[in-house]
Amino acid sequence: MSWLRRGCPAAMPPSIWRERTSSTLSAAYYQPSLTAEYDEDSPGGNFDFFSKLVTKWEAAARLPGDSTRQVVVRSGVVLGRGGGAIGHMLLPFRLGLGGPIGSGHQFFPWIHIRDLAGILAHALEASHVQGVLNGVAPASSTTNAEFARALGAALGRPAFIPLPSTVVQAVFGRERAVMLLEGQKVVPRRTLAAGYQYSFPELGAALKEVIA
């Protein structure tokens, strides 16, 4: 989790801080589902270890009282150069060994790192923004198989070799594997309503920029 504060020098007591923005992981907060659609008002955060951990992170970042405008950004899988999710995927995909995880039917909420930073900046600068924002791209119906095909296309490589569920569970453990094998359809309804303009709303353009 990370958070940003504005107008709050170190010497200033918490009672007069005016703005706080924090970031947590949407893929852990919302319950994995092959059918449900989640927006910022959807319930979650209480069904397993990771969801409860996100709830505790958000509670720790929250300041008491109403004098501080507070924003929580729940991010999807962040796509950026030099590491993160893409850093682990590039080698097998460059070798033509990439493909969907498990069935590939699960949703894959993602966001370009430039847009995640942009949402955080927008939340700080726009005084009307408060509460929870989903930090995911508007292309919320992307499945894991579609993501694999798009990454393969961006690299000019085939991407049809699936990673079996049993391997994912062995490598990541059962609880973490659920987030990869089931996924969630997360929509940034309030983020869009708050006026944020995405730089990379579509997956193809985002991946081309990341691997360029």
From TrEMBL:
The gene is SDR39U1. Gene3D superfamilies: NAD(P)-binding Rossmann-like Domain. This is Epimerase family protein SDR39U1 isoform X4. Signal peptide: none annotated. Residues 164-209 form the DUF1731 domain.
